[in-house]
Please model this.
Amino acid sequence: MRQELHAEWTKLRTVAGTGWLLLALVALTVALSVAASAATTCSSAGCGHDPAKLSLAGIQLGQVAVAMLAVLAVGGEYSTGMIRTTLVAMPRRATVLAAKAAVVGGLTVAAGTVAVLASVLAGRLILPGNGFTAAHGYELLSLADGATLRAAAGSVVYLALIALLSLGVAAAVRDSATAIGVVLGLLYLFPVLLVVVGNPDWQRLVRQISPTNAGLAIQASTDLPGLPIGPWAGLGVLVAWAAAALLGGGLLLRRRDA
Amino acid sequence: MTADGFPRLLRAEWTKFRTVRGWVIGMAVAALLTVAFGLLGAAGNVSSCGGGPNGDDCPAVPRGPGGEAVNDKFFFVHQPLIGDGGITVRVTSLTGIITYPPPNHDEIVPGVVPWAKAGVIVKESTKQGSAYAAMAVTGGHGVRMQHDFTGDVAGRRGGVSAASPRWLRLTRSGDTLTGYESTDGKSWTKVGTARLAGAAVQIGLFVASPCDLTVEEGLASGTTDCRFTEATAVFDHVSLQGGAPGGRWRSADVGVGSDPDGTPRHPGGLEESGGTFTVTGSGDIAPLGGEAGQTVERTLTGAFTGLIVMIVVAVMFATAEYRRGLIRTTLLASPRRGRVLAAKAIVIGTVTFVAGLVGAVVAIPFGEQILRSNGNFVLPVSSLTELRVVAGTAALLAVAAVFALALGALFRRSAVAVITAIVAIVLPYLLATTSVLPADAAEWLLRLTPAAAFAIQQSVPEYPQVIGDYTPSAGYYPLAPGIGLAVLCGFAALALGLAVLRLRRRDA
Model:
């Protein structure tokens, strides 16, 4: 496994896109988070906004860079034919995929932590000026607060799980463009369904099974009993999605010719 | 290149497209997904006549002369008018009550909502939805002349009181109704005209007061609440020209609802003493918006699924050439590079248009049927509007595909192009409609990003004379349908221009 890890690390490190994508992950996340925090005001007590969720809204955009990083780590090898060299050098295919997952996941966690910390800091600085004050029932956003810490750490884990999900999908479909389409479809279609489905039972179900909605339940810091799915259970749903994708991708990788 | 060069180029690109099985299957899948997800979305809406206490008896929604669904509830003091004639009144007061308004929600306060109306009206009959023209003073929008639910002309601004009363006059000559207003009953200003056919009509006084809408922005979606209001107006100097000899004023509570025991709910009323009419009424004479039922475009949500598949296929249509080295053959055969891209754009645009059209044409009738069988009221729209929604959806998909193709040619890397196209079109829509952002930020997203194009699907317009929840999350777009689509066209043209530039400048 050490050899495989080293090989995958070298490949990912030396590809031109990796650095840019990690930079994009941080920049996109922080930019949208700042925009959402700056655009939202709380004019009275009980205005219903969740400051932790708001200050981490950029994850919605940042996850795109993560998905792309993961998809290209696999899809790139298929488009250049590199995959054949890889598998000749390292015939244990499941280990190759595991090494890829570890390297991509590790990089995502590293960059994701930076992005999340910057977003929370931005929220801490911006939100009090927009009426998120003690008078309206909001304390200063702080990682010392359990719910905020859960939202922040959970967002990093969320990004890592999106990376694993994308990796699995890419290994299954073996083409970057199709893989990215499938991943973004999975991420965005459930939220679109929520817009149109009026039936509350269906809405609840969609929120419970969608990788994005359930996974991002981890960001909730207020009104937890009212959520369709709890923070940790929601993240668990995304774990199931990622595990299924990775398992499916791994099986197909072992079964098929490269 | 010969004169018939471009058709040949088109044919070559079409051959490339149709001989790659995955792409053809992709387009078919896109059309299927459009239908499947549209029907799923439709099936997810079950209604039992929203708001009515006695759930299952769905009252028929009246429709105006233009075919649109309308609200037609008001207190009407009327008598018949045959042939030419008119009515003149002086309004000296407009007051009212609003029940349980925020922030404290626990009292009935005096107040008049901005679109409470009191004045004179000529209406085809007392039937709901029949044609009319009215001159009215309003709670907050001055004097207005309104007709047939959608027509609205502004007159003098300002409210009405005993110190500054308003005189209103409505005359009928042939089929033409003319509205006038005055501050002293001597010098009259014409406000507008309307047409109303039919020999015998009803003429008289009316008062209406729409419910008081508040929208609270919440986490997942905004919640709306519409509180009962009532308005009371005092009329004097009532004079009727051309009425039947010895005509008597009769009262009608048009469209009044009834409680389960049969008594009218919130009845209006008339008190008359010495030529002074005090009329109380509730309700509204106005077109209905999206809150009253489901819109046709609800059945077209599946277009998002189709869109993602189409973007992937369109990008591959451009990038596959680079991956396989085919681009060198292509450019050798037709060295005018801009034309190659134009031919590709036409082919992918046409194919996606057809696939999208098939999807939309199938999804709408079946989706509407599902919505209706689930007890939903589907807001009627003219067939021209329906055509615009269907063809517009197909056009949206086609332009989005051209945009994706151009991005593919520009970046030459399929993953980058797919992600850029999807993020540019789908993400802004999601951010704007799922209430993550406040309404005004959401509206700017739907003005500036390619997601503006979804405005082409909006079938029920925003009416300035009705207060409604006109936010993106309620299905209203800030741009007019055509302009919204033009924004996406602009992005596609820009991407195509850059792609041509890059194709010309760089080696393939």
User: Anything to note?
Assistant: Chain A has a mean pLDDT of 89. Residues 2-255 of chain A form one domain.
